[in-house]
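Researcher: I'd like a candidate sequence for this fold, 345 residues long. If you have to choose between options at a position, lean toward the conservative one.
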């Protein structure tokens, strides 16, 4: 008889926008008890998930399940790197970037069925200034927005979009010196993102071609742009066509060093932190074991209500653009139309 695996569920009760009260009952109903002995652990404070996951790895638990959003996933995952304990995810946050990249279902019952299938693979992860990340890290505008999002007091994609539209065209680009294996180059950039996986979350694809198995990261440099460029960049982000935009420069590297003139924010999987003028980023190849969807491949396209809203909006962008140019209220019109469409959903 096959020996049962030990599995621990780490549940963040305050992540995302939905209650987690029913999740223990769903686990009891759906999880295959012939395969698994399981335990439930609940987080009580920031960093607690990382502590529990480390304890589980030390005890030799076979699988640790992060039940929460990208922050919870990051905490759990960073305690499991270079161990024999595998990460599993029941996505319950507002963005769910890693889960979406891996084509895991957003439904709790279906995600538990993926765990029952128990297909484990090795994946890459990244490190920015000694901080592990599994989807993306970066600096510039996206780190600035991560700070705003953390301060907003409410979660969800509409809050994120509101912050982007409100702050985006007021943000001043910075000059960065970026050095990789081929040498150093200077860029004036709105943001620099380093992507181990394809997206930020909510199917916003900053690096549509990224894979977590190649030992490299996709480096994305977004050059300065104006109000009339912004809608197309936003559309490309959700339509997986960002690489075709003239304001975007990309390359791949195993490691990079970035120097900027002033200290500022960086983010790792959406969590912001202030740091100095020098930033080092590198990839750890096959450094973490993750349960995957046996019926899907990395980065398959999934339906998303934001994508539909953006697609509908940008089908009429030429009319909007004419109105903007005539009235001289370019960004106000974009804000009003876009937010109206989002709040109808």
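Model: Candidate sequence:
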């Amino acid at each position: 008889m096959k020996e049962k695996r030990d599995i621990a569920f780490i549940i963040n009760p305050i992540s995302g926008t939905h209650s987690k009260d029913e999740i223990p009952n769903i686990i009891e109903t759906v999880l295959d008890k012939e395969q698994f002995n399981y335990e439930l652990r609940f987080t009580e404070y920031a960093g607690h998930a990382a502590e529990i996951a480390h304890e589980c790895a030390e005890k030799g638990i076979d699988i640790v399940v992060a039940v929460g959003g990208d922050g919870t996933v990051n905490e759990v995952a960073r305690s499991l790197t270079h161990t024999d304990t595998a990460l599993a995810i029941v996505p319950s946050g507002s963005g769910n970037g890693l889960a979406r990249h891996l084509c895991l279902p957003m439904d709790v019952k279906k995600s538990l069925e993926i765990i029952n299938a128990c297909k484990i693979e090795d994946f890459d992860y990244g490190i920015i200034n000694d901080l592990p990340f599994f989807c993306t890290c970066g600096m510039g505008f996206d780190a600035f927005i991560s700070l705003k999002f953390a301060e907003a007091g409410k979660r969800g994609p509409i809050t994120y979009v509101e912050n982007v539209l409100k702050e985006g065209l007021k943000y001043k680009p910075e000059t960065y010196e970026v050095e990789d294996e081929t040498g150093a180059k200077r860029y004036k950039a709105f943001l620099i993102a380093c992507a181990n996986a394809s997206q930020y979350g909510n199917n916003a694809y900053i690096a549509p071609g990224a894979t977590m198995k190649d030992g490299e990261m996709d480096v994305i440099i977004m050059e300065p742009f104006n109000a009339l460029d912004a809608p197309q960049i936003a559309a490309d982000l959700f339509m997986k066509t960002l690489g075709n935009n003239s304001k975007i420069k990309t390359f791949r590297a195993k490691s990079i060093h970035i120097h900027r003139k002033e200290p500022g924010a960086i983010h790792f999987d959406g969590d912001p932190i202030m740091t100095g003028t020098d930033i080092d980023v590198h990839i750890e190849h096959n450094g973490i074991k993750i349960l995957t969807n046996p019926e899907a491949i990395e980065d398959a396209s999934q339906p998303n209500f934001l994508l539909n809203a953006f697609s509908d909006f940008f089908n009429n962008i030429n009319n909007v653009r004419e109105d903007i140019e005539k009235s001289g209220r370019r960004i106000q019109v974009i804000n009003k139309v876009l937010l109206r469409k989002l709040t109808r959903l």
